[in-house]
Amino acid sequence: MNNMEVLVILLFVKALEFNKVFFFELLKW
After folding, report:
1. What highest taxon heads this organism's lineage (predicted)?
2. What is the pTM of this model?
């Protein structure tokens, strides 16, 4: 794997974590 693929994967994982937190915050409303 080259560095670009690693960066994309890291960004994807962080986006998933952020969406999960955001979704739970919406459910708490």
Report:
1. Bacteria
2. 0.56
Q: What pLDDT, in 10s, does the model give residues 7-28?
A: 999 999 999 999 999 988 888 8
Distance, CA of 27 to chain centre: 18
Task: Say what the pLDDT of residue 1 is.
Answer: 65
> Please, what's the b/e burial string for 2-25 (b: 16 or more CB within 10 A of its CB; e: otherwise)?
eeeeeeeeeeeeeeeeeeeeeeee
Within 1-29, residue ranges assigned H as helices are 3-28
Whole-number Cα distances in Å, 12 to 24, 26, 27, 29 = 18, 21, 22, 26
